[in-house]
Amino acid sequence: MKRFFWILLAIGLGIITAAGFITAFDLTIYLDLTPFLLVVLIPFLILLTQYSLREMGNYFRQAREKTQFSYENIQKGLIFFTTMQRLLIGSTIIVSILGLIAILRYIDDSAAIVGTRFGVLFIAVLYSTILITFITIPYIGALKKKLVNKPEK
């Protein structure tokens, strides 16, 4: 994975931030602890049942570094990032369903309560989309590129 990735990542996050300023929204509305914990913590805890922190760190390192790793380790890294991606999608679906249930429960109440619930739902989707777009997809791509460039034994 090239060092240029981190520059592009910063630019991408900068564009997202700039979009918030351009549309005249307060960026603090995008910071909500509950969906962040549900979207990030649930997949992380599930990953901890299958991988140690050291293994996770090694898979991130495999994708970033130009060092040669074994075909088997690259395959394991691909499995890890694919699993992470699927868990992020799954946790987002769970949080979205919980948000819809909360919306339907308070549908007759004030618009502020319903609006807040919709906001939480969409913030969860936003967090998951950002993590998938800027973490799992590039790392999966980097590992697949290493697989293609590495002769199979």
What structural category characterises the helix and strand content? mainly alpha
Largest sheet: none
How large is the count of helical segments? Answer: 5
- Runs in which pLDDT lies below 50 for 5 or more consecutive residues are none
Q: From the structure provided, what is the oligomeric state, counting identical versus distinct chains?
A: single chain
Helical percent range? over 70%
| CA-based shape | globular
The radius of gyration computed from the alpha-carbon positions, rounded to a whole number of angstroms, is 19 Å
Find the count of extended strands (DSSP E, 2+ residues).
0
Describe the protein.
By secondary structure, this protein is mainly alpha-helical. It has one domain (31-149). The protein has 5 helices and no strands. The two termini are 23 Å apart. The model has no long low-confidence stretch (mean pLDDT 84).
Task: Supply database-style keywords.
80% helix; 153 residues; mainly alpha
Task: Note the topology.
Layout lengths: L3 H19 L10 H18 L2 H12 L6 H35 L5 H39 L4
Give a quick precis of the structure.
The protein is mostly helical.
